[in-house]
Amino acid sequence: MSDLSTIPDFDDLPPVPGMPQGCAWGIFDRNGRKDTLGTLNLLTPSVVKAAASEIKEGVSVSLKSVAALI
Length: 70
Known about the structure:
The chain has helices spanning 45-52, 63-69. It is an all-alpha fold. It is extended, with a radius of gyration of 16 Å. This is Putative cyclase. It comes from Aspergillus sclerotialis.
């Protein structure tokens, strides 16, 4: 997992040949190994635990349903 201080801001993401500006491919690659999780690397146990403390109602929402409302 990368330290948040090593992740560039959106405007500072390095160009990826053949991809539009803002592509984050390669940001989490380490020691010559390609990463397959991307920003899911940021979901550490402590982050998930902190997020769980935000639950108030226990209601789940389908993101597909939310997208239809937007």
